[in-house]
C-alpha cells in the first residue's frame, strides 16, 4: 500500500464516518488524489463508503450498517446536540428540545427525520397523540458519540444554518447559545 493510501486508511480508521470534503481538507490533498486512492482502497475492501443525506462517508469494513448510519448522522452538530439533550434531560417533547437547543422547529424536524430513520431516536405517541422523543439505543448511541470528533468546518456550517433559521423565524439572538 502506498504512503498516501496508508495515510487515508488510517485517518478513516481514526475518524469513522468522515465525509469526503472533510477528508480532503484534513489531509490537505487534492480531491482527485483522494478519489483515486479511495477507489483503490475500496477495491481492496480496506474502506467502505456510504452516501447519506447529501454526503459520502467513509469507514473501515468493521462497521455494520447501523453504526455507519449513526456515525453519518452524528457528524452533524445539531443531530449530536439533540442526542446529548435527550441523554441529559431524558424523554422530551419536540417543542421542549427545540427551545432547549434554541433551534427552529423545522431544523429540529429535519434532523429528527434522520435520527429516527437511523434508529437513534423514537417518536412515541401517547393516547392524545402527543409526541415524546426517546433515545432508541442509549448505550450504543453514547459509544458512537465518543467516536465522533466534530471539525471546525462542520461546526461553522451547522451554526450558520442555525443563524439563518433564527433570522427567518424572526429571532435575532439565534446564535446566543452557540458560544
UniProtKB/TrEMBL annotation:
Signal peptide bounds: none
Pfam families membership: HTH_20, HTH_HVO_0163_N
Domain spans labelled HVO-0163 N-terminal HTH: 2-71
Gene3D superfamilies reported in the protein's UniProt record: Winged helix-like DNA-binding domain superfamily/Winged helix DNA-binding domain
Cross-referenced SUPFAM superfamilies: Winged helix' DNA-binding domain (SSF46785)
Coiled coil: none
Descriptive protein name: ArsR family transcriptional regulator
Amino acid at each position: 500500500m502506498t504512503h498516501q493510501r496508508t495515510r487515508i486508511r488510517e485517518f478513516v480508521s481514526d475518524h469513522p464516518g468522515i465525509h469526503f470534503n472533510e477528508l480532503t481538507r484534513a489531509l490537505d490533498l487534492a480531491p482527485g488524489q483522494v478519489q483515486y486512492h479511495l477507489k483503490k482502497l475500496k477495491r481492496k475492501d480496506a474502506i467502505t463508503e456510504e452516501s447519506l443525506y447529501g454526503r459520502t462517508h467513509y469507514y473501515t469494513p468493521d462497521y455494520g450498517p447501523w453504526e455507519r448510519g449513526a456515525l453519518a448522522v452524528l457528524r452533524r452538530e445539531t443531530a449530536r446536540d439533540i442526542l446529548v439533550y435527550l441523554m441529559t434531560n431524558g424523554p422530551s417533547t419536540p417543542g421542549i428540545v427545540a427551545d432547549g437547543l434554541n433551534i427552529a422547529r423545522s431544523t429540529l424536524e429535519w434532523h429528527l427525520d434522520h435520527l429516527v430513520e437511523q434508529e437513534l431516536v423514537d417518536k412515541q405517541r401517547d393516547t392524545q397523540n402527543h409526541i415524546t422523543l426517546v433515545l432508541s439505543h442509549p448505550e450504543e448511541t453514547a459509544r458512537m458519540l465518543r467516536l465522533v470528533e466534530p471539525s471546525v468546518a462542520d461546526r461553522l456550517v451547522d451554526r450558520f444554518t442555525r443563524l439563518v433559521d433564527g433570522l427567518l423565524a424572526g429571532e435575532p439572538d439565534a446564535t446566543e447559545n452557540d458560544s
